[in-house]
Write the C-alpha cells for this entry.
Amino acid sequence: MPVLVPTEAGRIMKAPIDVVLDRFAYSDEMGVFGTMVVRGTRLYTVENPWINNEMGISCIPVGVYRCKPRMYFKGGYNAIEITNVSGRTHILFHIANTHKDVRGCIGVGLTLGFVDGAWAVTSSGSAFKHLMKYFGNKEFVLEIKNSDAVSL
C-alpha cells in the first residue's frame, strides 16, 4: 500500500514501502538490533541506542524514509543514504558489526553474534553486498518500526 513520503524538494508523494526494518532489541550498552528482508534474505541491523535523535550518536526515529545511493567517503565505497530524517543528514546503511561502528548510521549483517565481547551483526560485508545488489543503484522507501521490541 502506498504511503506519503517527503521528497528532497520538500514535496510529498505517494510511494510503496520497499523495505521494512523492524527493531526487536534495545540495549543502552550494546545498541539497537533489528531485521529486514531484502529479496527473500533476512538481514540483521545494528544501530546506536536512542539518544533523542542526536546526530552521530543516536538511532533515527521510527518512520518512513526515502533512501538513495550515496558515496560513503569515510569508507571509500558506495552506500545507501537514509534521507528526510528530521534534524539529521548523512545517515547511511554501511558495513559495520557493532553500534560503535555506526555513529548514527545503520550496519547490516547476515547473522547475529559477538565481536570483542559485544553484541554484533556478523558477515556484514556479505549482507551489505546483498543490500547493494538490489538497492545500490536506485531510490527506495524504507519503513522503520519497533514491533515487539525488547529492552535489555
